[in-house]
Amino acid sequence: MSYVKFGLMILTSTVVMFILMYLNTYAWEHLFWSETRTYMAILMGATMAIIMLAYMLGMYDSKAMNAAIFVGAIVVFGVSLWLVRSQTTVSGPSYMRAMIPHHSIAVMTSERAQIEDARVRHLADEIIAAQRKEIAEMRYLIDDVADGNVVREIYEDPPAAPGSVEDALDNTLISQLDLSPLTEAEAGEVVAGPTCTFNRSPEADPILWTAADGGAAMKLNGVIVGLEESGEGDFATDGARVAVRLLGDEANWRSNAALTFELEEGLSVGYRGFFDCTGSDGTE
């Protein structure tokens, strides 16, 4: 076997290993190129080069070339390992592109594992909800940061203070408030005939329902809250605002709309997901 074929074999194996690392993601829209996974694939390719050449030394006669391959593979292994461990080249968007497939794996395993214990099932369902929420938030932030909107400060809750259990139960941490999925029946309790929805993920219930009369419904901290339309795609109530923006030419199979949720207290969060106005009869 020639050294060229050996190199092509290692290169092909490295590319295949990179692709295989995505096979345990939950959904196609969670596939993002990952800088860290690229370094890991290169690291594994370098390891494979050392192991395979060691087993096939008798097929390659050039001691100088063999030594060069061993030394080169060790160097590539070391550099790749340093890049993975240090994350020195990973920016905010690169970090999120790597985390989305990672979160997707958690969704798949948590949803499909054969769990019998109710406590473990509850834990798995909480993991699924949290990962889907964070995936939608990261999809929003990837584009927002890439557009140059780098935020230096965000809302923070006041410092903890001594008190009783009753005080703790009465206390609301604003930074942890967020929109929760709600069913059509729940939305129907505060708006008439909800028709349009915004979903963080196609597999979960929407976090916003809107109606033809301009009303909308969201669920916040276990409370179903009605909103009134304050502009095209904007809905508000005392203390909070929700805005939905269609992505237009930016829309793709990953998302077609962006939603921002703001509280007057200072909290602001955004998501990329799916806005749909298809009625039960198939019309829009």
UniProtKB/TrEMBL annotation:
A Pfam family: DUF305
This protein's record includes keyword Membrane: yes
UniProt keyword annotations, A-Z: Membrane, Transmembrane, Transmembrane helix
Transmembrane spans: 6-27, 39-58, 64-84
Sequence ranges assigned to domain DUF305 in this UniProt record: 94-153
The protein's name: DUF305 domain-containing protein
Taxon lineage: Bacteria, Pseudomonadati, Pseudomonadota, Alphaproteobacteria, Rhodobacterales
